[in-house]
From TrEMBL:
Full protein name: Alpha/beta hydrolase fold-3 domain-containing protein
N-terminal signal peptide: 1-20
UniProt key word Signal: yes
Protein species of origin: Sorghum bicolor (Sorghum)
SUPFAM superfamilies the record matches: alpha/beta-Hydrolases
């Protein structure tokens, strides 16, 4: 696990991981034979550094495949457990309870505060093709966030491309949110005991990093269009948290690269992820030029976007905030920038001072405190 983590950190520093900006013309020497046979045939697509898809249909992932079981975390006292949302499709989630509620695995102990907790639905990153709600990276991050922010978190194990190309991840994300809200009703057969006892659907937060930030944005817009009523009254999205979100577009926004090779590579990888279903300027990948009335569909009154100064995706994150502010949307859009850091550095260097500061920003946002803009 430690070796894999260091390897991932090095990759981020070298290639700005989730942006996957450049691809070599062929697999590196020796890599093509790892886990594949001669029968697998030619390479169909090499998505550096995440995976290779062979024309036979075989997919080899090189990073982000480790998982850890749900547990009671020794460092934070947070307890987690896994739930299958849909047995037919395999959609699952990992639930997290903060320490004062996590003294047993059923979550039936009385909340010391006598109240319910904000409900955080989280979508992991990984370029839509790798990582997991059960990975050590996201398990550690959610344990820390749940402990600090005192929320009940639902981390979604959505299906990955290319086996399940977009919009499968979007549909999974929406289904998991609907399941979580349905289970917040206070009593009833089949309700989840943690959600029904402790989650407050009127204090709902949607969050994600990188590709997960893209998903969280999509889910928020869909919630604004379709509504989020639940059994015990209307759910309310209090806030949207986009951590180094993955957005792109045909034409560069201010301070974004104009290198044609890089921009073509982004288009190719996006087409790979969605099987050509969405163009590079579709609002699911490029919300910046959306009409004002579309921006105003966001059902929350607060949005937090974080960017890292050395991340090529940071320009589009800033443009997202500027477009939202200019749309007439009646809310507060906050931007937090960490200079001198790369994409999702807070996952790869979780013990750094900068990661601790970013965690504090997210916690304060969830708890309703003002976020100071940096950069």
């Amino acid at each position: 696990m430690a070796g894999s983590f260091c390897f991932l950190s090095a990759l981020v520093l070298l290639v700005n991981m989730a942006a996957a900006l450049l691809t070599p013309p062929a697999l590196p020497p020796g890599l093509a034979s790892v886990g594949a046979s001669a029968d697998d045939g030619e390479v169909d697509f090499f998505f550096f550094p995440f995976l290779v898809l062979y024309k036979s249909g075989l997919v080899q992932r090189f990073i982000g495949t480790d998982t850890v079981p749900a547990s009671t975390d020794a460092a934070t006292g947070v307890t987690s457990r896994d739930v299958v949302v849909n047995a037919a499709t395999g959609l699952a989630v990992r639930l997290y309870l903060p320490p004062s509620l996590a003294t047993n695995r059923t979550g039936t102990d009385t909340d010391d505060s006598g109240g319910r907790l904000p409900l955080l639905v989280f979508y992991h990153g990984g370029a839509f093709v790798t990582e997991s709600a059960f990975s050590p990276t996201y398990h550690r991050y959610l344990n820390a966030l749940v402990s600090r922010a005192r929320v009940l978190a639902v981390s979604v194990e959505y299906h990955l491309a290319p086996e399940h190309r977009l919009p499968t991840a979007y549909d999974d994300a929406w289904a998991a949110l609907r399941w979580a809200l349905a289970n917040t009703r206070r009593a009833g057969t089949g309700t989840d005991p943690w959600l029904s006892r402790h989650a407050d659907p009127a204090r709902l937060f949607l969050a994600g990093d990188s590709a997960g930030g893209n998903i969280a944005h999509y889910v928020a817009l869909r919630a604004g269009r379709d509504g989020l009523d639940c059994d015990d009254g209307a759910a309310a999205v209090r806030g949207l948290v986009l951590l180094d979100p993955y957005f792109w577009g045909k034409r560069p926004v201010p301070s974004e690269t104009s290198d044609e090779d890089i921009r073509r590579w982004h288009e190719r990888t996006w087409s790979f992820l969605c099987g050509g279903r969405y163009g590079i300027d579709d609002p699911v990948i490029n919300p910046v030029p959306m009409p004002p009335e579309e921006w105003r569909r966001l059902p929350c009154t607060r949005v937090l976007v974080t960017v890292a100064g050395l991340d090529m995706l940071s320009a589009r994150g800033r443009a997202y905030v500027h477009a939202l502010r200019a749309s007439g949307w009646q809310g507060e859009a906050e931007l937090y920038e960490t200079p001198g850091e790369y994409h999702v550095y807070f996952l790869n260097k979780p013990d750094s001072d900068e990661a601790a500061k970013e965690m504090e920003v997210v916690v304060n946002f969830i708890n309703g405190d003002q976020v100071s803009t940096r950069g």
